[in-house]
Amino acid sequence: MDAQPAASALRVRTDGASRGNPGHAGIGVVIERVADGSTVDEIAEYLGQATNNTAEYRALIAALARALELGATSVEIVSDSELLVRQIEGRYQVRHPGLLPLYEEVKRLRQRFTGGFRIGHTLRGGNRRADELANLAIDRALGRPLREPADAPADGSSRSGAGGDRRPAIGASPARPSVEGAPPRAPASNAPAAAGPAAPDPVMDVFALAAALEAGQSASLGGGVRVARVRPGQARVSGWAMVLRGGVDVGGRTLEPGQGWRGGVRYRAVGEEDALVLETDAPT
After folding, report:
1. Domains in the chain, please, with CATH?
2. Which of 16, 74, 129, 157 is 20 to 30 A (C-alpha) from 63?
């Protein structure tokens, strides 16, 4: 894009979160000046029950609407949703009927940025603040404990933005499963001694655990069982598996949620969305 005055050229970082997909969903938006990277506004908004892709689109729509309110004539979008970015770029078709009206709304809004419109993909680490805000919105709606982020103002003040709070408190991060390929995190040396052993909770939400994974990762659930979030086109091998979400191809046959196989089998995720697969290499 051509250089624009700081007031008219904005960069927005967007993220949508869904715990369960569909499940409790929220959006996070960070709006920055292109000129100096300073933050202009932030949005954290709870959506209710929605899929992750719906939340991603809703976050983008909220971001574009707010950028227009702030007087932007050009905008740069940064998202960690590859599906969203590729669909807006026109590289992927929008086939899901629930996403079509949201896609059309994005098209309508983008036409109002007369100085230029760009969109690009980043990994989740490049969108960390937007991810925090999306999960904050869910935590706040569910009444979960909140804590202040490290960069919160010393006086505890916050400023309000459209659709949610600016610089709100961040919910405490839940314990996560061990992720394949990730180094173990060392415990803090100044951590207080535990009062006593906590009773293990036998209940787990597999979909919530999988939502914490990056696409292409897997997490151990214990007992030799793991959950894998498989990117479209990605291939894996498993001794036993069951599809939880999405679709996978096994020897030319497409399996849907609820179907599975046994024996060492190579499979590949198909479709436009990540597949969720429960795997184990244990004998069957």
Report:
1. 9-171 (3.30.420.10), 206-280 (2.60.120.10)
2. 157
Closest CA to 236 of 218, 221, 255: 218
In three-state secondary structure terms, 186 is coil
Q: Which of 4, 58, 49, 3 is nearest to 29 (CA)?
A: 58
Does the pLDDT of residue 196 top 70, yes or no? no
Return all residues near 119 (Cβ < 8 A) that are at least 6 apart.
76, 77, 78, 79, 85, 88, 89
What six digits make up the tokens of 253?
């046959």
List, for residues 60-96, the tens digit of each pLDDT value. Answer: 999 999 999 999 999 999 999 999 999 999 999 998 8
Question: What are the pLDDT digits (tens) for 120-143?
Answer: 999 877 899 999 999 999 999 998
Task: Answer yes or no: are the C-beta atoms of 21 and 14 closer than 8 Å.
Answer: no
Q: Distance (Å, rounded) from C-alpha 43 to C-alpha 49?
A: 18
Closest CA to 88 of 120, 122, 45: 120
The secondary structure of 78-113 as a DSSP string is EES-HHHHHHHHTSS----TTTHHHHHHHHHHHTT-
No. of helices (H) and no. of strands (E), the chain: 5, 17
- Greatest mean pLDDT among 44-58, 194-208, 232-246: 44-58
The amino acid at 160: S
